[in-house]
Fold:
Amino acid sequence: MNCFRHRETASVGICTYCGRGMCPDCAREIEATAVACSDQCAEGIRKTRALVAANQRLVGGGGGLNGLPTSTLTYGVVGLFAFGFGIYAFTVPNFSFMAWYCLLFGGVSLFNAYLIFRRTVARRGSA
Structure:
């Protein structure tokens, strides 16, 4: 395989972002774990890593309170609010359908928060 920009030169690596071959003159090392063939690809790698880091904080990387994922906290708060409103709705006449709906929604939200919490704790234990 030859360099994408210098067709006569043999490539020494493949760009992490676009997958093109590159020669030593084109290669740009990014944080010792990636190689880019151009400044545009280097910027793309940085943006992709930032996006992955943001997603890890949201879903399970520990960006929330005490290292809990933000989604766990969100599901927990929404679940408690809906469950509490469901209990309150039983005291209001003609609100039994809404009460059952809120209890179900709150229960499912709390269960999701529990599952995400367990997965996060299991990941930390295996890491």
